[in-house]
Amino acid sequence: MALFTYSRLSHLLTISVYKSSVLRTGSELKHGATCCVQFQRCQRSVDSKALQERQRQQMARGLPKQKPIPGVKQVIVVASGKGGVGKSTTAVNLALGLMANDMSKSVGLLDADVFGPSIPKLMNLKGNPELSDNNRMIPLTNYGVPCMSMGFLVDDVAPIVWRGLMVMSAIEKLLRQVDWGSLDYLVVDMPPGTGDVQLSITQNIPIAGAVIVSTPQDIALLDARRGAEMFKKVNVPVLGLVQNMSVFQCPKCNHETHIFGSDGARQLADTLGVTFLGDIPLHITIRETSDRGQPVVISSPNSPEAAAYRKVASAVVQRLQKVSS
Fold first, then answer.
1. I need a labelling partner for 276 at 20 to 30 A (CA). Which of 48, 77, 105, 156 fits?
2. What is the pTM of this model?
């Protein structure tokens, strides 16, 4: 089998962006001329309701049609309004928690953060994906979870310097050019924020639901609220909020300190009318196991920290069942 590398992907993306820009230039010119004629006609004879209906139809034609990923039953996106709240760690342990709660379920993990991929480190995976006979990338697998990430195509310290169109093309290939096999759940680790990548993914594939991760800190909750509102606007069900780094317990005296505040995400969930999925503590075990590429759900399955992630995974499944019913 051939290997799929960063240089090969960059070449393909450059070609695809060039072709799309050439085609778009011609269509934009044609569209602009048509709009001028239509505008003049509308001024003379067309009533406002007919004009609005035509505009709505044109906008609908411009949006990509959602197509399911072959072999994937349900897609769960894990998102946050800002970086640094433990979203990727939560996504990894959520995927492993879904499997730990029900060993009959198959779960995949997609790293959609093109500029800052974390899944290779968290899942202790390295190397380039091979290509299948039908020229699709084969995910790298560890702990029984097939994973795909831009981090598999670049060196650990190599920056990805791409413009927006190339990023969108890369996301399209990560969604469509990967051989996932048969999966019950595909957990997508989204980049922070509410930008092009989030919109591209929500417009391209049907999403079963979104999990919003935030710390209890007020400044993080502001961005978490924006993230939740964005998914509502694009008709993606918000499964609920996870409150990460909720409390720190001193390992010597067991005194609990709410470093980032108390119950902020729970209160935000009540305000938004969405489900509160659970608390994840601020604990050194989570940090150490993540840095070693041995997530706590796998390396310390009987610990309270692993139990917290499994509880969140159970709440996510319950919400999925409720949303789909």
1. 105
2. 0.80
